Every structure is written in C-alpha cells, then in structure tokens.
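Let us practice reading a record.
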Amino acid sequence: MKRRKEWIIFFNGSYEESVRALDNALQIEPENATIWQNKGLLLGLIGKKDEADIANQKALEIFNQTIENKPEDAKVWMHKAETLRSMDRLEEAVIAYDKAIELLPGKKEDAWIAWENEARILMQLGKYNESLEAYDEAIMRIPANDTDTQAFVYGSKGMSLSEAGRYEEAVSDYDKSLEISNEQSHAYLPALQNKGMALLGMGSYEEALKTFDRVIEINPNFGGWYGKGQALKALGRYNESIAAFDKDLEQFPDNPLVWADKGEALQAMGRNEDAIKAYDKAIETARSSPSFIDEGTSAKAWYNKGLALKALGSQAEANAAFANARELGYTG
C-alpha cells in the first residue's frame, strides 16, 4: 500500500515536518476529510491533544456531510468510526463500525478490518465477550489461504486480552498466531515479543526469558532486550538485567520505560546514586519524547528517586521528589 508523503516523513522521525506536509495538502484540498483525519492522528501521536481534537472534529464534520449524501458508503462509515475512536468516543465508534459492517459484503476485505477494529474497542470498553465474538467474526472473514492476516488478527486479539489482564488467554492466541506464521511473516515477531510480555504479566519469568531470547536470536534490534531485562529483574538477576537494559538503550536511548526499569534494578542492588541518574533520564526523556504517552512513568520515577535520595540521607531532596510524584498523580 502506498503511503502518503507525510507518513513517510513521520516514520523517519520528522514529526513537525509531517504535520506541515499535511497542512500543505489541506491548502490544496481543505475539505478532504482523510487529510484532516491523518492530521488529527499525527497530532495525537506527538501529544498535541487540543490541536488533534480540532482536526478530528473537522474530519468528523466532513464525514457526516458525506454520509448525508451517500448513506450507503461503507468506507465513509469506516473513516467516521476511526475518527470517533481517535477522539475516545468509543461507544459512537462501535455504532459506526456496526453500520459499516451492515453495508459491507461478508467476504470483502474491509469487513474483517471493521470487525477487528470493533473488537479492540469493545475490549477497551470492558465488553470482553462481545469483543471475543467480534474477533472470531473477523477471523471467519479472512480467506483461508491468507495465514499472514489470520496471524495478525490472532496477535491483535492477544494484545487486547493482555491489556485486559487476561494473560493466559492472550498467550493462547499468540501461540495460534505463531503456529500459522513463520519468522518471515510481519506478524511473527510482534506475536513472540507480546507473548513474552504476557508471560511477564503471568509471573512466568523463566518462560518469558526464553521467549525474549528467541526474539533476540531472530532480530536483536526488535525490542527483545527490554523484555529480557524485565524478566531478569523480576528474577532478581540484577547485573544481567542492567546489561540487557543497556543493550536496549544502545538502540533506543530515549525510551523512558527502559531508563525507569534500569533505575529500579540499580536501586535493588543498593546503587542509589546510579539509580538517581537513571530516574533523571527517565523523567527527562518522558518529557522530551514527542511520541511518548506518559501513563505514570514520570510519577513513579520521581517517587523511586525520592526513595533513593532518602536512602542516601538527602531527606529534603527526597521530600521534593515525593512532592513531584504526588503532583503527577502517584499514589503507590
């Protein structure tokens, strides 16, 4: 599938330039809803929520106008659903996907895409049984010889189950994805990596470690080092854990999650000064990374930094760190 210029720029890391490319496109086609939709998505990815909301609202208005003229156009209903999802209007997104599914022929490619997207939203809404049924509907509509797509959807189902904390079921679906794909498939490594993360969630640390070692064996640049570091940390093998985190940081030096986990491993070894440096990097990169969504990483890093400072006898600085953690919502 041919990518628009702005997405190529985005994937090369030029976030602001990609938005400028979309703005240039909108000067030529100001009523192109898809361009507005892409702008909203990109702005959301770089953390500019208010601007993203404006772009998404404009896209939604145009899609609604199009539906008034072409109410039987399933693709427009799909676009509307995707936009509503970007705006976190999930119940409305499900209704729009239902309409798209109603209009799509059962075996048409877009039908499984609509079912798969709806399944993920239903899982977000906590409607687990409906979500699993939607995933099964998606898989039913994929041609029997298209094992790559089947593997992708099983992997997507596994991710949704993992997000819901249903790790054993997630592992089962990751295994199905792995069974019907191969190492050259686009679905294989994500399924293997995510299986490792689900095993971590289950507390099966040894099995998770083996899984991440397999990821690294296939592609050492895929992200397996971070998962391996987490498994080793959970097993109390802190020196090895730090070495694994360092391998990941060689490739991804601006990943706040890895810095935070490295800090915890250092702190567990009593290396509080080094831990503080790692927590500072976690806080710095969480703030500076345009695509990172901070869901408590900074708050926890501040709290752990406070513990490390307290252990070093720096109570005033520790209290300041704890205050920053509370300000960011830390309640642990």
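A brief commentary: Residues 304 and 312 are 13 Å apart (CA to CA).
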